[in-house]
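Entry for magnesium ion complex. Fields follow.
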Amino acid sequence: MTNVSLRGLSKSFGHFSVVKAFDLEIAAGEFVVFVGPSGCGKTTTLRMIAGLELPTGGEIFIGSRDVTDLDPRDRRIAMVFQSYALYPHMTIRENLGFALKLAGVPKEEIARKVEAVADTLGLQQYLQAKPRTLSGGQRQRVALGRAIIREPDVFLFDEPLSNLDAKLRSVMRNEIIRLHKSLKSTMIYVTHDQVEAMTMGDRIVVMHGGVAQQIGTPLEVYDEPANLFVATFIGSPSMNILEGEVENGKFQCQGISIDSPVPVSGKAFLGIRPEHLRIVPHDTPGAIRGTLGVVEHLGAETIIELLTDGPVITARIPRADGLSGGAELYVAANHIHLFDKDGNRIETP
Ligand code: ADP
Ligand code: MG
């Protein structure tokens, strides 16, 4: 188990700055997820940790070693990509053992380790097969196996499940979590998928525009998003954001009036997660009036769209049969978030 430390890590391509002064302490054995939209700098950060990309500024420590200028081979890391990058002409056994063979590990030891890894990942019956005869999920298991067999200090994953269908993705997600629990290795996992981030990470780093917007446990980030970007990126459907003014203890926005939990005044943004809204009687304090737009039945839950005089509000409510479009109804929030005029969180009691 090894800790990883990123200190003022930055990267520019020409004048284009894609990772900006990134500071992060990853504890030994921790599972950290970098999550953010495409282009926010996740892969570049991971590639710098791997040594495949040289930083423009800052330092990378793995354990007590400053690896900033070290060759990738000397960093004791293993990386798993979205494309499995298996050698097509080799059997699974040869694919798994290849790195050890290159490193001059004795044959018997390679054979023993290949068996052990194949056992862990349920690949025993495929050892003699070629990659093309395997399914996507099995190939990704082999790619995982090739990382595990090297017994790296740190595992790096770059969107490893993006090529798999939804069902297999959730199976592999659990498999990687189990693997982390049994190996107890430090793992850094990159994804654009907030569900993967929320379910897999001990901590998550929400990235946007090359900047770490927030670092915290999944629930910290969900409960107390640092700014509007994090608030709308984490959670599904996205948090409703109302732009308005706080005056005399009330947040006002185009006919909507909700008690402000903090005594601020002036321009502000109010955030309400769809799952924190309920249909209520019209005389409920803070009720938002609207007419029903699109209704989506998910089975156990129903997602409704409420057309107010101002913004469209999305609510995720327990299953509601028999709702018809155009009906007038009221919703109220049991939990709200407040952001200042710059979109930064205002702490609420
Ligand atoms: P992510 O993995 O979050 O989608 P990347 O780290 O791949 O983002 O890319 C971040 C930004 O850096 C993108 O705008 C991308 O186009 C740019 N970029 C990545 N690699 C290079 C490169 N080798 N040369 C120039 N620009 C690059
Ligand atoms: Mg990427």
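NOTE: The CA atoms of residues 245 and 267 lie 4 Å apart.
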